[in-house]
Amino acid sequence: MDPRVKRHAEVLMRYSLALKKGDKLIIQGEHFTLPLIKECYRLALELGAHPQVKILNSELSEIMMKQGSDQQLTFIHESDKVAIKTADALLTLMGSVNTRMMSNVDPDRLKVASQGNAEIFKLFFERMAQNELRWCGTMFPGQSNAQEASMSLSEYEDFVYNSCYLNLDDPVAKWREIEREQKKICDHLDAKKELQIISQDTDLKMTIAGRKWVNCCGQVNFPDGEVFTGPVEDSVNGHIRFSFPGIYSGREVENIQLTFQNGKVVKATADKGEELLNKLLDTDAGARLVGEIAVGTNYNITKFTRNMLFDEKIGGTVHLAIGRSIPESLGVNQSAIHWDMLCDMKLGGKILADGQIIYQDGKFTI
């Protein structure tokens, strides 16, 4: 076995989830992630936790999306509710045997499924905000995701593990260093009231007064590397063009351009996937509002891979999410969706806070 798999499990269990004796842990992932599942399971037992494994199957999800009634698409099993209500820690191993499984699903059905998940997502984020549930999402490298990134499997393994700093002797020390560096940025931004993002075809203003900037350093996502907040919901004005395709359930939406007025998307266009874009914006009242604005800080991630776990962390980018706010940021927008879209800032992009430049050409200047 690749020794980095064991190191991956060590960081997840001891640092990201900080697992302790008596914790009820749920580990979920597709069958191909079993090498990492087994290492995490073994270590969880060693730490005195009570692990439970849930094997996911994207083929069954496809059958549900294509054949299930609206009632079935929105139904939440009681066992899933109980799991979210009672677990102390949840580990999600991302990745699929086929990243394009949902490519031909009717956008209306994707919208219905998103609406059906609203209740469980609300509970999930509430428990996380109250520090009752610790969650981490990570990636186990597989063939399908390697193909999406235009890499061989061995190249993708190197990409994943390097982005997590698992190539270092002490990756946790590196993540603690990142935590300290990003705390300075968050403390600076917490004192600001207005934010402006300027880049190619982009000039977007928003109010951030009274909101909290969150320091993402390998505990909720792994890899990590971003700082984010939730802007005041009715304050976003201007326009933004996203340099990279938006990815939703494996479907690409290219050259997305959004115009905001008093917090709401009033115009949305795309060169490809515009129908899906507008269907998702119509999911519910909160889907046209901004739930998150963030800056990627992981300069070990230099390539767009069509997976937002990595792409939103790319150093020199910002991303904006329409839909649900993350409660930790003190944002209050409610929606069944939370969709991140990515904008490159490395060529002339800048961010101003209260009229002062704090970020230029992909790097903070504070």
TrEMBL record:
Regions annotated as coiled coil: none
Keyword Hydrolase: yes
Cofactor: Co(2+); Mg(2+); Zn(2+)
Pfam families (alphabetical): Peptidase_M29
Domain of life: Bacteria
GO molecular function: aminopeptidase activity; metal ion binding; metallopeptidase activity
Keywords, in A-Z order: Aminopeptidase, Hydrolase, Metal-binding, Metalloprotease, Protease
GO terms under biological process: proteolysis
Protein family: Belongs to the peptidase M29 family.
Name the UniProt record assigns to this protein: Peptidase M29
